[in-house]
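Journal club side-thread
Mid-discussion, someone asked how the predicted structure for our own chain would compare to the paper's figures. Pasting it here so we can look after the session.
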Amino acid sequence: MLGRTDSRVRALIVLLVFVLLAGSSVVRLAYWQVVRHDDLAAMAAAQTSIRVEEPTRRGAIYDRSGTVVLAATVNRDRVAANPKLLTPERRQAVARTLVSIVGLQGDAAATLTAKMTSDREYVVLARDLDPAVSDRIRSLSSGSSPALSGVLLEPEPHRVYPQSGGAPNTTLASHLVGFVNREGVGQYGVEQFYQSQLAGSPRIVSAERGAEGRPVANTEQVVQPGSPGQDLTLTIDASLQVAVEQELLAAWMADRAKRVSAVVMDPYTGEIYAYASNPAYDANDFRAIASASPDRFMDPIASGVYEPGSVFKMVTATAAFTNHSATPTTRVVDSGTLRLDGGRTHVDDADHKANGSMQFQDAVAYSRNVAAAKIALALGRSTKTSASILFKTWQKLGFGTKTGIDVAGEVPGLVRDPAIVPWRQIDVANGAFGQGVAVTPIQLVQAYGAMMNGGMLVRPHVVKAIGNKEIEPTVAGRVVSPGQSQQLTGLLRHVIDTVPFYHDRTVVPGYEVGGKTGTAQIWDAKHGRWKINLFNYSFVGYIARQAGRPDLVVAVRVEEGTPTTIRTGLLEMPVMSFELFRRIAHDAITTPDLVPNRRYEPIFATPDR
C-alpha cells in the first residue's frame, strides 16, 4: 500500500489560505458596498446624469423715472458640443460646417476647430449667435442623421446697454453703470457694487444624460429653484445725464484735456442726478475696450484722486468758522509771499502781488494763497495745534475716508495725519489751499453739500430703489451748525458776486449761484517735476431758485487742461471750469420735475454765532 501523500498540516494551511482570501474579499466587498457606496453612486450618476446650472434673469437698471432702461438682459444662443462622442473624422466635418455657418475666419476659426477636434466631453464653441445662425444650427443638429451631431444650442443671458451716451461710441452713464463680463459678473460701477442683488441665484437641475450628452426629456429634477435678480432704479435723470455728457465732450475737445468730469447732487438727500466723465466707453463693446484702452474703465469721480487746489479754501474757511478763529469779515494781510519755517520755506500768491489788508471773504473770492495760509496757521496757538484742527476738519468733512457712495472702486484719498508725522508750517499753509492732499470729486461734492445744506454730512448715492424698496438717505451726522452753514453759503455767493471775472461767466438769469474755483499744478512723477502748461481745473458750487437756499451742488473737474492764455496769475482755457459749471447747473435746474419743492425751515435754523 502506497503511503498517503496528504497531510493534516498542509490541509489546514490550505484551508487557512482560503479563509483569508475569502475574508479579504468580504472585507473588500464591504468596503466598496458600504464605505464607498456614496462615492460609487455619485460616479455612476455622473456618467448617466447631467447637472445644469441655469442663470436666472439679471435685474434691469432704470433711470430715476423707471421708464428709461440703462441695462437689460436678453437671451442669445451659444453652441456647445461633446467631441468625445464623435470619431476624429466626424469632429473635423462638424468643425468645418460650424466655421462656415457662424462665419468665422483666421484665429477665431482655428480656435473653434481646435476645440471641436479635441477629446473633451464639453466645449463651448461660439457665443452670442444671431437668431438666423441659431436656426440653421438647430436644423442641422436634428433628425435621424444630423450633419451637426454632438452639437447643441444653449440659451445664454447677454447684457445689453441700449441708451447711447452724449459722446460718439459710448453708452449712457457708462462709468456709473459698468458692465457684465462673459461669466455674468458685474464689473465696475453699479453692476459690480450690486452684483448679488442684480444677479439673484441660479436655478440648478439634474437630468439623465442621453447618448450624445444631452439631458433626456422629462427626467429633470430641481436641485435649487433659484431666484431672479432685482431691478435697480437709479437716482440719475437720463435726459440730464445726456446733456451733461454732451457738455463734457465739448469742454474736453476745446480744452484739449485728458479727462473732464462732473457730478450733480441734491445736497439734502445725497441723490446723484448726473454722474459723467469724458472720455467714456461703449459698455456693449467692453471686450474691445479692455484690449485697447483698459484705463477707460476707471471712474475718475470716485476712483481718481488729485490735488484740488483752491476749492479747498472753503474747507479752511469751515475750520476757521467752526473754531471761531475767524469770520467772513476778519481782516488778514495779504503780503504776496509768506516766509515760513524760519525762512526755509515759503508760499506765494499766483500773481506774486501783495493786496495788503483785506477781509477774509475777499481773500477767498480772489483766491489769495497767503491769506488762506495765515488763517490756517492762526487756527491754534502753535503749528501743531493748527495742524490738528485743520486735519480734524478734513476728517469731519469726509476727506481721507470713503464717502460710501454705492459704486465699485471708491478710494479714500490721501491725507497725512499730523499726529503720526508732524506737520511743518509749510504743510499747514499748503493744506490751506489744497496742496499736499489728494481727494476725489465725490468727496468734494459731499463736503460742499454739508457746507450748504445746513451742516449735515449726507452720503452720496446713485440707487433710488432696489426692486420696490426705496433707499433712504444716510446722514453721517452734523459737521457744522446751521448758522455756520449759512456763513459758508454766503461766502460761496460772495465769491461770484465780488469777482467780475467769475460773475460774468457763471450768471444764470433768474437763479442764484455761488461757488469756488481751483487751479492746481500736476506733479510728473516720471520726470520728477511739475508738468509743463498742464493743470487741473475745478469748480464746486450751487444753484438756487430761492436766495440763500441752494437746490443743487455741482462739481466739475478738467483734468490736465491746456491753457491758451498763460500770464502770471492767469491760466485761461477756451472753456473754464466755472463756465462748464454754469452750463451744467442751468441744464440741471431747468430739467422738468427734477428739483423737489421743499421747506427749508427745518434745515436752516436761526443762525448761531
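Post-session note: The chain has two domains: 77-161, 238-589.
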